Amino acid sequence: MNSAQVPAPARAATITWRLATVAGVVTETPRARTLILDVPGWPGHRAGQHVDVRLTAEDGYQAQRSYSIASAPQDGQLALMVERLDDGEVSPYLTDVLSVGDRLELRGPIGGYFVWDVALGGPLLLVAGGSGIVPLMAMLRHREAALEIADARTRHNVPARLLYSSRRWDDVIYRSELTRLAQDDETLEVALTFTREAPPEWTGFRRRIDRMMLAEVAWPPGERPHVFVCGPTPLVEAAAAALVELGHDPALVKTERFGPTGERG
Amino acid sequence: MTEPFISRGFRGRRQAAATASQLPPGQYETRDFPVLSAGPTPRASLATWDFTVRGRGAPTARWTWDEFQALPHETVTTDIHCVTKWSKLDTVWEGVSLDTLLAEALARGVESAPYLLAVCDGGYSTNLPLADVTGGKAWVAVKFDGAPLAPEHGGPARLLVPRLYFWKSAKWVRQVRLMERDEAGFWESLGYHNYGDPWREQRYSGDL
User: Fold this and answer.
1) What are the structural domains, with CATH classification, of chain B?
2) In angstroms, what separates the C-alpha of A172 from chain B's closest C-alpha?
3) Least crowded by CB within 10 Å, which of A96, A145, A191, A239?
4) Quick check: A14 and A107 in contact, CB under 8 A?
């Protein structure tokens, strides 16, 4: 992480609240929707960053939550993926109530560590659990858009592998897009694993992400892949610890965890 | 914004008044204990663990784990507020007050200064004004809820500065560096607020 001495910053520009308009809604899984947003004045973002969303009731009561950005920086619109938490305060509003034409207050982009772009180089190793795929999808979408216009050497320099854990087939967010990306791109490999129920005749992984699986999927530590792990806390703890045990430099393993310590995705 | 924006059809879930008064703006209460860390959880061995307080000059105050455990410990019940919006109320911690550690360090010849940088295993760091960690405001905590602090929550020892957003309560803390000048820590140099007062909602650099 940072070892250089950085002076305390002079006051930076405020990350202001903006009124976005819902331009589209995509059903990803039975529990997950993507909100496609027009955001006037959006300053741009890096793949991996998130936004804060703020809801205001008529009496002035407000609630805020953070959501990862799913769209690539190159995309014209901002995409947020929201998974419905049945006992949630904000996500059921975003998945069940908010509709095309509605407005939504947000500010961002936020976060300067869990970010990747092709200029940082590769190899790129992505490890996701459940909706932890979202910021990693922004990286894959950014990578795809950047490589479309890149030369062969750049393409060669940023091979990517994704290991993505889901409970069952229906829970795999971006299933068809991931399939298409992997088919169209020889330098991208996607490996899925299922923790509850694999599809019939599934020949791939069917267990939680562990050290053996990572040893099989990941590049050797000597290749010094940039690693991004995102998902429920137990998955991230297990995967990050296993990667360090396998010899990966902890400074190259960036993590984003969500949820409490004890729950498994 | 000139006219307050209303989210069509949003009702929200208001907290009981007693809870609401404990919640800074934009925060919600959680009963869980979420984990947020930028990288893998470091695993420290208590046999080699030490805690040091360093000033500008040569003298450094150092405690081994056993020496640290022999210092007077305090039990603290406090609310904690994470910048990612969750707050956890009435949490119970045990640790050594920064007052104790700094007084001992100064007695051993460490030079005081108006700022400090907390430096941690795993490369994490955070900066604080000395005034915000003295006078019963900060601890190096080694227990949560009566049990040794779990590694994912910062064990064996983390800073506890409950008056500021919880990223200032640095996990896996190993050293306090007293500094003449304020110097941005890890998140403070990556877009988060330099001070981080939850009651003024100072989440990101640029927030007033």
Assistant:
1) 25-31+44-200 (3.90.420.10)
2) 24
3) A96
4) no
Rounded to the nearest angstrom, the minimum Cα separation between A246 and chain B is 13
Counting one residue from A and one from B, how many pairs have CB atoms under 8 Å apart?
Answer: 157
Token pair in block for residue A148: 């479309």
**Mean pLDDT along residues B170-176:** 98
Averaged pLDDT score across all residues of chain B: 95
Nearest to A250 among B1, B8, B39 (CB): B39
Q: What is the CATH number of the domain that holds A81?
A: 2.40.30.10
Looking up tokens 């060669």, which residue turns up? A156
Give the pTM: 0.93
Last residue of a domain, one of A82, A110, A138: A110
Complex ipTM: 0.91
For tokens 């099989």, name the residue. A216
pLDDT, one tens digit per residue, over A26-74 is: 999 999 999 999 999 999 999 999 999 999 999 999 999 999 999 999 9
Helix, strand, coil percentages (3-state) for chain B, rounded to 5, are 20, 30, 50
What domain range is A165 assigned to?
118-258
The answer, yes or no, to whether residue A4 has pLDDT greater than 60, is no
Residue from the list B35, B186, B207 with its beta carbon closest to the beta carbon of A2: B186
Interchain contact, B28 vs A55, CB within 8 Å: no
Claim to verify: residue A136 and residue A254 sit in the same structural domain: yes
The average pLDDT across A253-260 equals: 83
CA neighbor of B132 nearest in space, from B159, B105, B161, B157 = B161
Interface check for B56 against chain A (CB to CB < 8 A): the answer is: no
Q: Which residues contact A148 (CB under 8 A, 6 or more apart)?
A: none
The count of domains in chain A is 2
Q: Are strands A160-168 and A188-197 parallel, antiparallel or unpaired?
A: parallel
What was the pLDDT predicted at A9?
Answer: 56
Question: Does the distance separating the beta carbons of A5 and B191 come in below 8 Å?
Answer: no
pLDDT digits (tens, 9 = 90+) for B180-190: 999 999 999 99
Q: What is the tens place of the pLDDT at every residue in A31-43?
A: 999 999 999 999 9
Residue A91 located in a structural domain: yes
CATH number for the domain that contains residue A141: 3.40.50.80
The residue of chain A nearest to residue B152, with distances taken between CA atoms, is A237
| Distance of alpha carbon A81 from alpha carbon B35, whole angstroms | 21
Does residue A1 lie within any of the structural domains? no
**Both A131 and A102 in a single domain?**
no
Same domain, A127 and A240: yes
| C-alpha span between A82 and B37 (Å, rounded) | 22
